[in-house]
Write the structure tokens for this entry.
Amino acid sequence: MTVPVLELDGISKSFGTLAASTDVSLSVMSGEIHALIGPNGAGKTTLIQQIYGALVPDSGSVILNGEQITSLSVPARVRKGIGRSFQISNVLMDFTVFENAIIAEQARQRNSFNFIQPAFEDASLREGAEIILNRVGLLARAHQQTRALAHGERRMLELALALAVSPSLLLLDEPMAGAGMEESQQMTQIIDQLRSKMAILLIEHDMDAVFRLADRISVLVEGRIIAVGTPDEISQNQEVKTAYLGEDS
Amino acid sequence: MNTAISTFLMIVLSGIRAHKILWVLIAGFGLFPLFTHLADLPFWNDLAMRIMLLSIAAIGLNLVLGYGGMVSFGHAAFIGIGAYCVGISQHYGLMNGWLHILFSLSACSAIGLVIGILALRTSGIYFIMITLGFAQMLFFLFVSLEGFGGDDGMSIDRAEFGFIDLYEPLRLYFLIWVVFVCVGLMMMVIVRSRFGVTLQAIKSNETRIEAMGLVPLHYKLASYLISAMICGVAGTLFANWQEYVSPDIMHWTRSGELMIIIILGGLGTLVGPVLGAIAFLLLEEFLPLLLEVIWPAYAENWMIIFGPLLVLVVLFGRGGLVGLAQRAMARVNRSFNSGERP
Amino acid sequence: MTFTLILEQIFNGLQAGVTLFLVAAGLTLILGVMNFVFLAHGAQVMIGAYAAAAITNATGQFFLGILLAVPVTFASGYLLEILIIRHLYRRDHMEQVLATFGLILFFNEAIRIGFGPAALFSDLPPSLSGFVEILPDVPYPAFRLWVIVVGLCCALAIGLFVSRTRTGAMLRAGAENPEMAAALGVNIKMLFRLIFAAGACLAGVAGMMIGPLTAVQSGMGEPLLILSLVVIIIGGIGSVRGAFIAAIIVGLVDTVGRVFLPSLLRLFFDQATADGAGPALASMLVYILMAVILIFRPTGLFPAKGRG
């Protein structure tokens, strides 16, 4: 029985009287795309924040590759192998696409605290940056100012930067938010191909993408997991239907 | 060893090529005494020294302000600490200038560490106010140290730098100039380095930098310490130039002036602080004279022009002098290109 | 170390505290709700002091001077907002610092041109120039007592306004979440203008109060400005209640501390050390307090936006 990449055990978090997460447990294996769905306000982002380290749970543990990380900071968890793409793109707007990738590569090489070596002219960093951008097909746009990118391209860059840390766990927070038809399909393809290399936790509202990509789906309603299963199982689950999917599914 | 030196030289040379205007200015300051000697205007050497000292401090603050995006309102305190290191050392009979600089670097990094750790846990308006608060604390500390002159300050002899006698003409000028060159070089290398790029990336989006596995506080704190030390050295040299130090040097309005200089010249550029220092001190010298000519009754109220000038610069002058120059260049290029069309 | 002295200093501390509150109340809202670094708030103090002194000297009536100066300071804040401040909201903090710094220079110089560099004559009104016995055999200057009363009444009025009225609710909403408040339909432009003008007015009142106690001259507002920034840091940006509590604390610590710290030190150290370190520590006391509070509460005691 292989160790899951991510294991959540009894995660609970309240804000005053509002219970954002109640006894949430789930696991994500390597090679699996695990989707987290639920109505708006269900607490999906709060849960992601607790996995990522931006929020500390009131109780419960977060275990990465068998190791307790519940008390680690965000950068520490990233170094242990968590990559994250945000719902609203967090790319470096004041730099070009290529420079974004160089900075990510430099961070991956754990060599950022160097006061003398120039960054943007460095050959090994440039090589690594090309690899990063090639994963999402952005190399052609390398010298564009990030500010001038189209929305879909920015989401691609966001994904590329998340992948740059060579994560064993990839947290995707609505990667297709605001993307058009074509871009969504592109992104779906890319994510599909990432499956074999890592464990992926996907939050997404685009149900087509979810059902195409997910190996397993967890349904979060009002802070609680009400169902876990394969896409088929979930689409036939009556409780889920009423809580979330509506009549047609 | 040889390759290390040659790589370093390559880094420096490529940097100089990328920042020609800065190095032209610095070279200009180096040659300036020749010009004043020929024109028999030795007073201007004094002004040039003041501009260089202000440039050094502004370059230091620019690291955190322009490149790091941290609005520190307390950096005049470090200039003051550097200056008082000279005064206090001399009070106890220590006349060695190198020692003064060593004290200045140590004091500024120690105090900078304490303030930095406390202040850098916040950002935005909190950070501005907290740095201001600490600077005020240091100001009042020195005002109340009766043993070191208190409010009246203390007079200073020029320090002994071994074989260099600062009382000989132009010795102090070139000491300041050498420090100016060194600080310029250092800043140029740092800004293009992995550290410098990461710092600017933190300014751009701190969340993303955390998501890359880096701890932003480390970079901010390091840059804060470096800038504090640079300002400290500026202060040490300033004490030698003025032969006097008082708490006024660390009044909060001094910090404001330093920020004005950087923003006026061009935030987050290497040459901006120098241009700003030149513009600021020239204005300070010549605005009163100008007013004497056109409106002599109000000559001593020249500040009344300076105030609204700043407001106008903010409202209409994006990017400071550097931004202005860039826009002018763009316009020249455009008319050049349009002229080429058949 | 008589009881009278202690009581007198406590009252002085209260007086300093309410004065600080008047300055800090407006500023904390400007910083917290409008996210605007308004360094020239000290100039509003100065404008208030000069307006009151000028009218008093012209009419010979102290209270008339104050009465007429209040709308003058309100108007000056209102005009400033319309002409300059509202163009700066979208700018980053650095540019706001630069611009408001320029405003300080302008106002200080303008006052110097208008009224000269020497302090303006501003005397106590005869009705308030005597002493009042706050306790039997404990005389206290009537004017200072009046300042305390005025200050506390203003604090009460502001407190009721902020907590009991609709506008006050909008204010609190704006302090906690400006974007949300705007989305909920609050007329942000007018709200900002009123906050600014009201803040200016309060600062002006502070100036009118301290005018007779200190000097009415160019630059008189800056020391108060800096100290009120410390008050706001301690109290929490955006919180009027925090500003009040912090102002009283700072006022008491600064006043009482300065008087009694050297004596206190003499209990623990020898005369020479105490006399040397005493004044130094006393003047830094408020800032040390600020630093200590920041260690445990980086965003102040009652931050409007909540902690973390």
